[in-house]
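Schema walk-through. Below, the input block comes first and the output block second. Nothing else is stored per chain. Lengths vary across the set, and this one has 249 residues.
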Amino acid sequence: MITNAVQGAAALAFCLSSGASELAPGPGLRAEPSCGISCMMECLKCQTKNPILHVGILNAFHPADGPDIHGGSPVDLYADFLDSVNAPFAYVVFEAAQGQLPSSPDACDAYLITGSLRGAYDDDPWIAALSQFVRDSYGAGKTLVGICFGHQLLSQALGGKVVKSENGWGLGLLTFRITKPKPWMSAQPEGCSLYFAHQDQVTQLPPNAELLGGNAFCPNAFYSVDDRVLGIQGHPEFSPALWRAWWRA
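--- output ---
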């Protein structure tokens, strides 16, 4: 059974990634997220007496990794993405790549792990610390969402495997099939198109994980664990303009 908190967070991630007008929808996708968002809002209201859901953004992008091409900070990009549906979210930012993490999983209601230029398998101390925080948060029953690097780190921290893929780079607007529709998904989608920019891949999902979508190049592109962990290899927060800026950089 999907809890209200998970249904709200997951519906937000999927409805936006598959329904935003600036992304190319795959076969069977709805062109607008409004129906799913209204359901999500009701779920969020039921989730807690507090009308605000506090989302901790765990920023895995280190300033030393290169120039910022987001037109702001990477955190701004994710916050703007979530704000686009006018959901009752409040954000707390933690610079995970610089060693800053919440003192306890209870610091926020849910956590989003961003992309990064590092690999989940790298031996940086902050990656080990973030992985342990993921395990602690999972044990505490928190909702966790990971995008790109975050998707990979969630999988590895919870018992999956991540490698630098022999398939090379996945770049551009790519479509993957939805292999396991969920009740919180808008309609019954057959596919989803997102911008991808990765070479690392999840090759083994964690125990209890459900594969929700993938394609021949990236079989494990979209998964959930216990209906409260969601991993997305693509970038639902990327717009065409941002993709062009990233590509030029």
